[in-house]
Amino acid sequence: MHVPISLSVCFVLAATVVAQKPHPCKSPPLMVGRLSLIYPKGEMFVYERFTYDALGKRIRLRAQGVEHNHSFYEDLLMLFREGVVYQISYKNQTCTKKPMDMPFQPIEIPQDATLQSQIILGSSSGPGQGLLVNNWMGEIPEQKAKFYTTFTEFGCLPLSSLYTTDETGWILSSFFDILIGIDDPQDFIPPDFCDTTKPVDNELVVTDFFEALKNN
Amino acid sequence: MHVPISLSVCFVLAATVVAQKPHPCKSPPLMVGRLSLIYPKGEMFVYERFTYDALGKRIRLRAQGVEHNHSFYEDLLMLFREGVVYQISYKNQTCTKKPMDMPFQPIEIPQDATLQSQIILGSSSGPGQGLLVNNWMGEIPEQKAKFYTTFTEFGCLPLSSLYTTDETGWILSSFFDILIGIDDPQDFIPPDFCDTTKPVDNELVVTDFFEALKNN
After folding, report:
1. Which residues of chain A does B125 touch, with a Cβ-Cβ cutoff of 8 Å?
2. How many other CB atoms are there within 10 angstroms of residue A74's CB atom?
3. What ipTM did this prediction achieve?
4. Per-residue pLDDT reduced to its tens digit, B3-12
5. Tens digits of per-residue pLDDT, B137-172?
6. Strands of A145-152's sheet, edge to edge?
7. Which residues of A touch B127 (CB under 8 A)?
8. What family does the Swiss-Prot or TrEMBL record give for this protein (chains A, B) (predicted)?
9. Contact A155/B124, CB-based, under 8 Å?
């Protein structure tokens, strides 16, 4: 019986070793957090609070930033299933409803991404002193884009993403202060002063994220 | 007796609140780890393993990198107390001893740095999913330089440092895989094939880190 037992131990060990290699993963479907976005070619710097619901394909973004030395504030409710974005201003009690032609992009490591390295930010010498993360890279042929992204090993949480094309130059997104779950489900409900029944103006279709931020 | 007890509780609470504000700190004096260094203006990218001894003012660096599309490997033993740097090649069994006129710069947050923000990389929602860090900025008037640096809250370990002057442009150092302590004390002893008694050639004084790397 020794040989079968040893063999099965070997199989278990082999399975463990295979399992230890990081694999592309999906972030938790419900998250709140913060994000900074640096886009040098567009002379744009944005700091955002986000509420993210991958189940309902909904994102709420409260962004403040600078573009070409002009500062802006945007409060966006993006409902991808309905193909609608609301631009909300509590100060002015105004709300603009626009059609949105953008696919919902879940926060995840694409399946065809390549693991570059696994590293510890800080140290594993003491508790609370380090964070085990994986660095990935990949390409998006249809956008002629490359990306480099870092996610935590435990929890599959995003840390940073560097996206680069010849056209855009590099765009760096850095995530932090993430909590798993949604603290306020009302974030996804348009405020009372939004006329949700109003038909959208199809001449103002929002097709990318920067456009949504800039249309203020 | 209620009032004095309440007051003393208030003082204890106040002291705790004051103590909770992060203060500039020194990294542990003994560390090993890795470092990547990006210096776009010098067209230089370096990946290093380091052994760091702030007590003995000694650094061992094994660096591989690219400068102006030319790749290089350097093994440097920097003894700041003696003002000497050894350039070591095990492959060729050669060793060059050069004088070094550089102050030892301990890994620390300068006392006059300003706290920008305290953030969590990843999340505090689950164990092993996040890292509490502090972002600092400051100036070095004598170098007309600005710096932005991130250290862990617990352990005071370096994560990254962005140094910028008009002359150099920006230089980004990213630290990772740090262990507290020295795994091999022999890292600081020149190998047998180094002639430590040989006087140094004072015409080859090394005055900065990049010079030490480039003199190969």
Report:
1. 155, 178-181
2. 19
3. 0.85
4. 555 555 545 4
5. 999 999 899 999 999 999 999 999 999 999 999 999
6. A94-99, A84-89, A70-79, A58-67, A44-53, A30-39, A169-180, A158-165, A145-152, A130-140, A114-122
7. 154
8. Belongs to the ependymin family.
9. no
